[in-house]
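> run fold Glycosyl transferase
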Amino acid sequence: MHVATFLQDLAGGGAERVAVLLMNGLVARGERVTLILARREGPYLDDLDPAIELVDLGNRRSISSIRPLARWLRSARPDILVSHLTHVNVAAALANRIARAGIPHVAVEHNQMGQNYALLTNRSVKAAYRLARFVYPGISRVVSVSQGVESAVLAFTRGHPHNHQVIHNPVVTDGLVALSGEAPEHRWLTDGAGIPVLLGCGRLHHQKGFDVLISAVRKVLDERPVRLVILGEGPLRPQLEAQLKSLNLDDHVDLAGFSRNPFAMMRAADAFILSSRWEGLPTVLIEALACGANIVATDCPSGPLEVLEGGRFGRLVPVDDSDALAKAIGASLDMPLDRVSAKARAADFTLDRAVDNYMALFAHLRSRGGTSAL
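> ok
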């Protein structure tokens, strides 16, 4: 089976990482995989299996790649077209229509469409979101990474569930587990000071709620010593640095930037904190489970409630509530949750399981000639 995946680039986002994992998993099953990029750039290029064929359309944006992608589809005629993220999905759907090759198209949604749309400033991307409600009914299958994402997609596009389904992301791999066993990079996890270390991971963006987490840490420090490491980069770094300075937290919180191996730190930290205001299916939360982390997470739309099974595998707190978050952090340090059970729950999000589900979907769509009917 020839599976083609279209992405804008391989920038360091969660959706791109998931796409690479899925493509590598398909190659490992013996499938032919082609990756078509609007522009060939991004750190995850190095993570691609060498067997993946790479096509660079030489454009800056997905919207300007529609006609070149249509020409490639008409010429190559893959068995399946996969795309990720709303604006990319819309471009892929339009290219597939122009190509008129009858290629089954699977469009993957990773996040809350309404929340994302409200924050968009790029006009072409906003236009793509508005087009989604007209384009999505004709896509062979719209795959959401969680039940909450599916509900949000259906609400935003005013869609019908006939061509929608949920497939959880491929997150847990043998490589992840192996990396978690390495020595953690951060000095606070190896200095022997005995001070509990909290860990947060994600883009420094309003969505991730790191401002609330920092405020919560200030409150925890009134009761006990604690340190916080936040991994990731993003546009809010200056504001978060200013917040640390105003709260006198420079010696207690480290904005440590991007890490190629956050998993060793997830294993070694005393607690992993997800402070997001919204998510799709939070990959870092599943990764933390796979590393046996002691977890505190906001009950945001969507994903944490689903992943943690209502609090069974981690403490859940309301969004934007630094008092509740501080209290839960204290409780997690006093009474850590069972790390063995956390690892067992993570097994529901393995790469093998996700690849099985996608291959079953691809086979179904091919048998139906690309139609969405079940």
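The chain has two domains: 2-170+350-370, 174-349.
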